[in-house]
Amino acid sequence: ETDIRLAAGLGVQVYRMGVDWGRLVPHCRLDEPDARKCRIQNVAALERYERILRMARGYGMKVMLTLFHHSFPLWGTWPSADVLAAANDRFTARDPHWHPRSSGSGTGAMWQHPNAASLFVAFGVDVVERLGHLVDFWVIFNEPVIYTSLSHCMGMWPPGPPITSMAVKVNCLTNPETGSLKAQLNMVAAHRRLYGLIRATESRRGWRMAPVGVAHLLMDTRPYSNYGEQSGKLDEATELFLKLFARYLFIDMLRDVLDFCGINYYGEEVIQNFEPATLPHEVEYSGNGRGISATGMVNVLAQFHSRYQDDDQARFVGPSGYGYVITENGIADGSDLLRPAYIIEHLAALHHARSVLGVPVRGYIHWTVTDNWEWAD
Predict the structure, then answer these.
(1) Could you tell me if 77 and 158 are in contact, meaning their C-beta atoms sit under 8 angstroms apart?
(2) Residue environment code for 65-94, b if the CB has 16+ CB neighbours within 10 A, otherwise e
(3) Which of 239, 268, 269, 328 is catalytic?
(4) Is 284 an active-site residue?
(5) Is 129 a catalytic residue?
(6) Phi then psi for 310, rounded to 5 degrees?
(7) What is the pTM of this model?
(8) pLDDT tens across 293-346, in order?
């Protein structure tokens, strides 16, 4: 309650938080054919979430609720034997160093499993029924592309482990039959179903319509060679891949069922050999190694809006759309020396994108009010 009271005292108008699927549904199986058996079981935790939402609204704040913010149920951690066997057959002949536990296509079965969407929707429906009257904005998935890439393909987030084979990484990131894209397709299916169910529930219960969106990470990416450093074509190809697969593809698949497009922006990423690189003489860095660039926020907003502003299927920029919301923006800065300037510079950049470039950004959420727990950094 103290955190919420202090946030309200700072003038925060929208309180963003998430619910934990694994906490609310601690018992299930990925191969459970009846999703109704995997609905919310921990009623006490659901009641606590309800009290928190009521508290935030009691202090005059609106609520933005996220259904999936990277934490997932323990029962969804490991792949089934058939997934491992299929992945092993596919890769062992090509890559003698490949192992089924480090392939990326055989880890993190949660969102690669064909039941994932149905199980998530069963959980989501219960959350909507119980908490929907307290929610002003829905974020169904937070950073789905980053989550599926870092957990399913790169091994940087649980369930891991680290993956060293470049061939396996590329296949996992680009092959729709496995890895990140397969997981994203299941997430798209879940989002579409929940979008319809949220609208149906609002209509049936007589609730106001709460905009539904995603929180999508955008980085201002550049190849290492742009800074006069020695670099091969791989960096430029990787940067192009990130724009095609990481920046637009997920939104393209959902643009007709997004009332708003949430954007998480932290800074600039320089790409070298398929990995983030640092340029200490050119860029100022945050505590977790991101390049600080308020100009980058203007760049990604302008590029994103240029792609969708004339797209009749992009609901979020249409007549009934809510536009864009900066759902996360902040800096890792243990000293608090960089944070004040960072906030001012990025708010100025946001003002420029709105007033000069005409990007319809309707809100800004600084990340985060309290200390943040992360998987790996």
Answers:
(1) yes
(2) bbbbbbebbebbebbeeebbebbbebbeee
(3) 328
(4) no
(5) no
(6) -110, 15
(7) 0.89
(8) 999 999 999 999 999 999 999 999 999 999 999 999 999 898 999 999 999 999
